[in-house]
Amino acid sequence: MTIYILNGPNLNLLGQRQPEIYGHETLADVEARCETEARDLGLEIRFLQSNHEGQLVDWIHEARMAAQGIIINAGAYTHTSVAILDALKAFDGPVIELHISNVHARESFRHHSYISARADGVMAGFGTQGYELALQRLHRLLAA
Ligand code: DQA
């Protein structure tokens, strides 16, 4: 089984931008830990990042045929993108919305998520460990 792990804008700067909020690990570090976790769970992953909304939409469309589950940290598009919500509504498998930070303890504009309306679960404030926890949850959901 294949899981798409999609990362949105500015997550390429993980480890460099606002480390007091997002930590010191890079996205490559997170990808490596996801690879290890996925191997332990017997899952395949495709770990992707783009700063462009349309690219994220295209990857979600691709996942319709290529993946059984999606983990998505859409970054700031979480709070703005009806297009990403609509794309996720066209995906049949489980979707986990993920945020490294606890968006609910931050500015009020981060409290609303378009993606939550389609997500089977929301992970926020678990740091980068959230990615491994989300993989475990998808593994459980897909085994059920
Ligand atoms: C984020 C939270 C968003 O509000 C923000 O725009 C990000 C990252 C997180 O992982 O905590 O870019 O999704």
Residue share in helix:
25-40%
What is the CATH first-level class name? Alpha Beta
CATH architecture: 3-Layer(aba) Sandwich
Largest sheet geometry: 5 strands, parallel
SSE string: EHHEHEHEEH
The H-level CATH homologous superfamily, spelled out, is Dehydroquinase, class II
Describe this structure in words.
The protein contains 5 helices and 5 strands; from the N terminus they run E-H-H-E-H-E-H-E-E-H. Helix 2 packs parallel to helix 5 and helix 3 (53-66) runs parallel beside helix 4 (82-89). Strands 2-1-3-4-5 form a 5-stranded parallel β-sheet, sandwiched between helices. The chain has a single domain, classed as Dehydroquinase, class II (Rossmann fold). The protein has 144 residues and is α/β, with parallel strands linked by helices. The model has no long low-confidence stretch (mean pLDDT 98). Helix 4 links the parallel strand 3 (69-73) and strand 4 (95-99). 39% of the residues lie in helices and 18% in strands. It starts with a strand and ends with a helix. The chain has helices at residues 19-22, 27-41, 53-66, 82-89, 129-143, and strands at 2-7, 44-49, 69-73, 95-99, 121-124. The longest helix is centred in the N-terminal third of the chain and has 15 residues, at 27-41. 1,3,4-trihydroxy-5-OXO-cyclohexanecarboxylic acid is lined by residues 10, 73, 75-76, 78, 99-101, 103, 110.
Descriptive terms for the model:
5 strands; Rossmann fold; five-stranded parallel β-sheet; 144 residues; binds 1,3,4-trihydroxy-5-OXO-cyclohexanecarboxylic acid; alpha/beta; 39% helix
